[in-house]
Amino acid sequence: MITGLYEAHLPVRSLAVSIPFYERLGLTFARWQGEHTAFLWIEQGKSWLGLWEGEQVNLPYHASIRHIAFTTTYEQLRHAADWLRSMQIEPVIFPGQATGDPVVRPDQGNASIYFDDPDGNSLELMANIEVPAPLRQMTSLLTIEEWEAKLRTM
Question: What domains can you pick out in the chain, each with its CATH number?
Fold first, then answer.
């Protein structure tokens, strides 16, 4: 019955600031905008993001209400930190990390990088990865460099 995700929504302070931010990330304005709401295509005709101006933007951050992960490829993810920085967007640095480079979660079979929008909503670029059987139980958060080094030793 369920074949994908059609829409997700985030609270924002200003559509005038948020729409151009998300367009820089590659989303396309969906030509539908109300007084305090706008929609941008994540994938044209397939999924979109609703931006809502309002007091909800003042809610403290929690992943259950102010987080979205966008799909990307592993190869694109490898270059995501530089891509974000080229737009003056600083990736989130996890505790124990020296940089905001992408991280790999072998036990989940994915890799990602986090960053914030202008209103502090948490955004993530995420790619599925193939994990060799001996590494599938590894719960450590690895940098892409650490992950690729482990793969080379197999």
Answer: 1-56 (3.10.180.10), 65-154 (3.10.180)
Output the CA–CA distances (angstroms, integers) from residue 100 to 52, 65, 74, 89, in the order listed. Answer: 28, 23, 16, 11
Residue among 91, 99, 152 nearest 125 (CA): 91
φ, ψ for residue 150, nearest 5 deg? -60, -40
Mean pLDDT of 86-95: 91
Burial class (CB in 10 A: 0-12, 13-18, 19+), 72: buried
What DSSP state is assigned to residue 136? T
**Would you say residue 44 has pLDDT above 90?**
yes
Q: What backbone phi and psi angles, to 5 degrees, belong to 81?
A: -60, -45
